[in-house]
Amino acid sequence: MPEDRLHAPVGDAVSHVPLGQYIGGDFRPGRGSMRAVHCPSNGHLLAQIEDAIASDLDEAVAAASEAQRAWADMGPVARGVALKSAAARIRDSAEELALIDALDCGNPLQGMRFDIGLGATLMEYFAGLTAEAKGETIPQPGNKLTFVTREPMGVVARIVPFNHPALFAIAKLAAPLAAGNAVILKPSEETPLSALRVADLIGDLFPKGLIAVLTGGADIGAAICAHPGIAAVGLIGSVPTGRAVMRGSAETLKQTQLELGGKNALVICEDADVKRAIAGAVKGMNLGWTAGQSCGSTSRVLVHERHYDTVVAGIAAEFDAVRLGRPEEEGTEMGCLSTEAQYNKVQGFIDRALTSGARMAAGGPPKGVPAEGFFVRPTLFCDVAADAEIAREEVFGPVLTVLPWRDEAEMLSVVNGLDVGLTASVWTRDIDRAMRLTRRIEAGYVWVNDTSDHYLGAPFGGVKQSGIGREECLGEMLAYTETKTVTIVSQG
Ligand code: NAD
Q1: Residue 59 designated active-site
Q2: Per-residue confidence (pLDDT) for residue 4, from 0 to 100
Q3: Is residue 285 a contact partner of residue 412, using CB atoms and an 8 Å limit?
Q4: Which is the catalytic residue, given 269, 295, 336, 473?
Q5: Same domain, residue pair 429 and 370
Q6: Pair 200, 281 in one domain
Q7: If exposure means fewest CB atoms within 10 Å of the residue's CB, which of 18, 87, 143, 338 is most exposed?
């Protein structure tokens, strides 16, 4: 790797990352301008990579299209074997990949180790589902046979964000590959390193060109949406980007899968086990995983007024005890925000909440961490109006708002009063209340007496403007197939 393109702050942790575009089975420089990749915990330059532009994309799609036919023809068993081998290589390189992500996105090593394991598990899960892209037969008179097959779509694209770089690179390749597609993967321009290393580690297990990794920002993302050779786009990202992807895909009538943002409610009822609910509210913020930068984070707590003071004091005490540190150091409980833009956005929300009179029960300037890093202490706001910005907008950071409620119907109107609905969490010991609230809450995933955890095969995704489609389940793989109906008339 040329020296002028890499200045790793921690030994040679990222020195195995190929700094180019992965197209047709090889790495080469993109034709766009050079982009710097920085370490968010100390501001050091990690790498420089030339962006991919439209002509790079054309080459990637042409190579992927050719490889896809061979891959589809291999059949489900051979595809499953290749995906399982890929998962094994990822597990073998888990430490390296976790360290790359810790440096590149600011999440602690322990959380990124979990991510690599989860990505490999999801890849193994989809490897085992390759034979489930089944069809059906339709009853006909004796001389006719009508059947429906499921076929791969061809070349599809997956565009992913900065908060789980390796996990999303690994897991979002898996479902469309299992179904027999080729995949163009676009990581976030802020955190592209682990996706490039993943392609390097597993690329030779597949027909040359089947996987492409193109780095860059909104421009190459928009070119992907507009490309006539790409059949579908799956985005994990923000609501505004979801709209842009849908608009950009309209001209070529591409299918879109959208996993977008949320402002997820955690409801504590009068009869809840308050101690457990407090621990659940802290867990739901995913502080140790992503410093709160998780789409599913339950970032607004609605607590019955009887427990309001106890819950505010309990969460504040747990927030104050969280140890911030360098993401790549063992024992760090919470890292930093992944990008400068995200840091500025989160600070803006905090400043405006304070100006508008909200009470900050936990938070303030971080101590004992590099001043150049994008560190934000876990921050708790209370005494906030239900219609305040901090109670309604996705912050995507370690900022939690607590609101009191007295009447269940009013509480539900606050919970459901937003345009988004990704996750929710309900804390109660009353089964009737649990069933009533899970039915009435508008969200794609609801936990009762828990938060955050995902389960293999359990669909994850949002309602309203939190997205379209479900992932981490059979439906994700089937979303990257098309049905074909065939009728055969016997002439015998
Ligand atoms: P983002 O929307 O800014 O970017 C996501 C990806 O889209 C990046 O790769 C980016 O380069 C690309 N992109 C940007 N503009 C584009 C355009 N016009 N056309 C095509 N691609 C474009 O999101 P982010 O800031 O990286 O991530 C944070 C957001 O992601 C939050 O809103 C969060 O809730 C959401 N998210 C959702 C899920 C989920 O499963 N629902 C998971 C993680 C993150």
Answers
A1: no
A2: 41
A3: no
A4: 295
A5: yes
A6: no
A7: 143
Give residue 259 CA to ligand 1 midpoint distance, Å: 9
Residues 87 and 172 in one domain: yes
Residue 1 clears pLDDT 70, i.e. is over it: no
Q: How far is the CA of 276 from the centre of ligand 1 (A)?
A: 32
Catalytic residue among 96, 259, 442, 476: 259
Average pLDDT over residues 80-88: 98
Name the one residue in this structure whose structure tokens are 């849908």.
Answer: 246
User: Is the per-residue pLDDT at 11 higher than 50?
Assistant: no
Residue range(s) defining the domain that contains residue 56: 3-260+469-480
Q: At 326, is the pLDDT very low, low, confident or very high (cuts 50, 70, 90)?
A: very high
Pocket of ligand 1 (CB under 6 A): 159-163, 186, 188-189, 217-218, 221-222, 225, 236-238, 241, 244-245, 248, 259-261, 295, 394, 396, 422, 462, 467
Judge whether residue 408 has pLDDT over 50: yes
Residues 337 and 235 reside in one and the same domain = no
pLDDT above 90 for 341: yes
Has 393 been annotated as catalytic?
A: no
Whether 301 is in a domain gets the answer yes
Same domain flag for 255 and 269: no
pTM > 0.90? yes
224 shares its domain with 369: no
